[in-house]
Write a structure and sequence with these properties.
267 residues; eight-stranded antiparallel barrel; four-stranded mixed beta sheet; 10 helices; 12 strands; 26% strand; elongated
Amino acid sequence: MVAVIVAAVALGAAPALAGAPVEAGKVYSGTEGEEVAVVPLTPRTDKKFIIRVRGTGSEFDGLVFPYELNDWSTSSTTQLNYKTQWHGRGYTALHVRDQRYELYVPGRQQAIRLTYDEKKTQSLKADEVYSQYQKLQKDGTLAKLMAFDRKGEAARHDKAYAEVLHEMNTACGTSVAASIDWSSVTDDHLKELSISSYCEPPLSALKGLCAVSNIAKQTVREKVKQVSCRFGDGQEPKLEADRVIWMTHKDASNQETFATRFFKTNL
C-alpha cells in the first residue's frame, strides 16, 4: 500500500483511465509473494487512494479499501502514510520512508518490506481494481469490515485473555476462573487500547509467583479462585475473600510489577 502511494507522489499527475475515476497505479511486492497495488483516485489533489493487498495470509487479502494519504515529506525526505478504517478505528497499513516501504496487516506484528515491482505495475489494470472496490462497496463488505464491531473485538480479547489464564493455571496447578467485566469497558477503550494487555498482568504476576517456590504456589492455590478485570479511574486492585478484582485504567503502567507487589502484600 505504502509503496503505491510513494509512487504516486514521486511522479506527476497521470491521465485518468477511461470508465473509472482512477489514474495509473503501481504495484509493490514482498519477498514471500505479498503484493500491494496502489491506485490514486482523481482528482489527485484530494489525496484519496484505493489499495489492494494479496498474498499476506491476512484478512486484508483480496480486498480493496479506500485510503487517505498523509504526507509529511520535506525537501530532503519522503514520509508518507496511507490510512483507512478497520473495525471502527484508524488503521495505517502502508508506511513510506524515503526508499523504505512497509506494509502492516491484521494478524502480523512485523512489517512486510516491499519493493517496487515494474513488471506487475505494467500489467496492472487500475480500472479493474476500482471495479472490485465498487463491488465490495455495493455488497456491504467494506461497510462491515470498516465499522466498529464491539462483539467481535470483545471476543478477540477474551480469547487472548483465556490463553494467559490457561498458562497461569497450568503453572500454578489451579483452576482459577477469570473474566473481563465488559460493562466497565467503553467503545473508546476498545478502539484505543489493547484490553487484554491491560487485564493480563495479574495473571502473569501469579504465574511468576508460582514459579518462585512451592510455598508461593500453595498460597495462590488456597487464596485465589477468581479474577475479575475492570476499567475505572485508577489502578486500585482489591482482594475480596478468594476473588481478585483487578481495577485498571487507560494510563496504567508497569502493571505486572504493580500486580506482583500487590500479591506479595495481600496474599
